[in-house]
Amino acid sequence: MENEIINEVVTNGEANIEAAKALATAIAIGFGAIGPGIGVGIIGGKAVEALGRNPEAASKIQTTMILGIAFAEAIAIYALVIALVVKFV
């Protein structure tokens, strides 16, 4: 589908704004979601490792993990907002 969009933009001679917007939206949310996804996975994995080594610190580890996940997800939300702005403005 992305190849069709790129071909449409290139072959029409004039910039097809809607196709370019669709491509930019896909790129914005696609790349914007990769980083937070990897980050949340690393945070969860390291938290489980820490819990395995020190089960008594579960409440502190859990709180820190939830904060880390929230900050990582905020980046994905920013990417979504940018994608929506590109799509509808």
Topology diagram in text:
Elements: H1 2-11, H2 17-53, H3 58-88
How would you portray this structure in words?
The protein has 3 helices and no strands. With 89 residues, it is an all-alpha fold. α2 (17-53) packs antiparallel against α3. The model has no long low-confidence stretch (mean pLDDT 89).
Defining traits:
89 residues, mainly alpha, 3 helices
Describe this structure in a few short sentences.
With 89 residues, this protein is an all-alpha fold.
Distance between the termini: 22 Å
Q: Structural class per helix/strand content?
A: mainly alpha
Order of helices and strands: HHH
Q: What helical percentage do the residues reach?
A: over 70%
Tell me, rounded to a whole number, the average pLDDT: 89
Largest sheet: none
Q: Which of globular, elongated, flat, extended, rod-shaped describes the shape?
A: elongated
Instruction: Tell me the fraction of residues in β-strands, as a range.
Output: under 5%
Q: Uncertain spans, ≥5 residues at pLDDT below 50? A: none
Give me the Rg, rounded: 19 Å
Give the number of helices. Answer: 3
By oligomeric state, this entry counts as single chain
What's the total number of strands?
A: 0
